[in-house]
Write a structure and sequence with these properties.
This protein has 255 residues and is an alpha+beta fold. It has five helices and seven strands, in the order βαββααβββααβ. The strands form two sheets. Strands 3-2-6-5-4 form a five-stranded antiparallel sheet. A two-stranded antiparallel sheet has the order 1-7.
């Protein structure tokens, strides 16, 4: 069974905390943005070729999606589980793509917003409706006060920064997740490793072999060596008994 290494788990924990912070910033900015404009916000453009109307809503709760990889990152750091890491990788890829799309949309809105050239001289609030006249040929009408609309530009910038940072963190987290899944630790449950002190030899069976020593007559004395040492053995003595036998022991007669 595989397990995430400690170094990767620590990096994933940092990425998870950063994802939570970026998601919190994006959610708060989106919530403030949604509270300043009406639910049925409409933008009407009056030009020489006709009238164009746009309506859209602000999905402030979209930043909550960034909390999912952040929570999974903390879970991976605590458990070092491979399945949780796979889920963390998938949600980070989804979050990265969603962040890119969100940044592109908000940047387009901000560019159009800045192109309108809304200021106190060209815009007037009448019955909670902001009417802006750029020239004799173009005018814009929005169902919100001009003071409210002029305060939305910093929020758009904050949303862009928060979502862009979350997308960057999601990219780093995805890369680290791929590396950690390719370098998992193998854990074998049920195996107990017992360490013995060094220089210890354990023998199951003990055998003793005796090598016979060669006799002295087979040994050769090297040049300049010493001869073998001989030991004296006492001679057994016998008692003398008298006898009357006068015969010679050896007959010297000639046959």
């Amino acid at each position: 069974m595989g397990q995430i290494q400690k170094g990767f788990a620590l990096t994933i924990a940092i990425c998870g905390i950063l994802s939570l912070l970026c998601g919190f910033v994006s959610t708060v900015c989106g919530w403030i943005f949604a509270s300043k404009i009406p639910d049925d916000f409409r933008f009407q453009s009056f030009e020489s070729y006709g009238t164009t109307s746009y309506s859209f809503g602000v999905y402030w709760w979209g930043g909550l999606a960034l909390f999912v990889p952040g929570i999974l990152g903390i879970v991976v750091a605590c458990t070092r589980n491979v399945c949780a890491m796979v889920a963390f990788l998938i949600f980070n890829i989804i979050g990265m793509l969603a962040s890119i799309a969100c940044v592109v949309v908000v940047i387009l809105i901000l560019v159009v917003w800045m192109a309108l050239e809304i200021n106190d001289n060209s815009c007037k609030s009448i019955l909670n409706t902001c009417t802006c006249v750029v020239d004799d040929k173009r005018s814009f009408t929005m169902n919100a006060s001009c003071e409210t609309l002029s305060s939305l530009q910093p929020l758009l910038l904050a949303i862009i920064v928060g979502v862009a940072l979350s997308g960057f963190v999601a990219f780093i987290a995805s890369y680290v997740s791929c590396c950690s899944l390719c370098n998992t630790e193998q854990v074998y449950p049920g195996m107990v490793v017992v360490r013995q002190p060094p220089n210890m030899v354990v023998m199951a069976n003990t055998q003793f072999n005796q090598v016979p020593q060669a006799p002295y007559y087979n040994q050769q004395i090297p040049y300049g060596g010493l001869p073998p040492v001989y030991s004296s053995v006492p001679v057994t003595s016998y008692d003398h008994y008298p006898t009357n036998d006068k015969a010679a022991l050896i007959d010297n007669g000639v046959v």
